[in-house]
Design a protein that fits this description.
mainly alpha, rod-shaped, about 60 residues, about 95% helix
Length: about 60
């Protein structure tokens, strides 16, 4: 037979699980934002390398 105490206990466990899952969601959102920021930084560094390479290429052709 199911008792009120059994249901209350199960509800408490479910609420604990829900709290943990929500916290994981917050952490995942934070990690996603950090990942996007890192992607942007790497893209900027690649663009800077391309700019330096084009300037080096222009200096070589100007000297020739």
């Amino acid at each position: 037979m199911v008792t009120k105490e059994m249901i209350d206990s199960r509800k408490i466990n479910l609420l604990d699980d829900l709290t943990k899952v929500r916290a994981q969601g917050v952490e995942l959102d934070k990690q996603k934002l950090e990942n996007v920021a890192l992607q942007n930084a790497l893209t900027g560094a690649i663009q800077q390398c391309d700019d330096f390479l084009s300037k080096i290429g222009n200096e070589v052709s100007d000297e020739g």
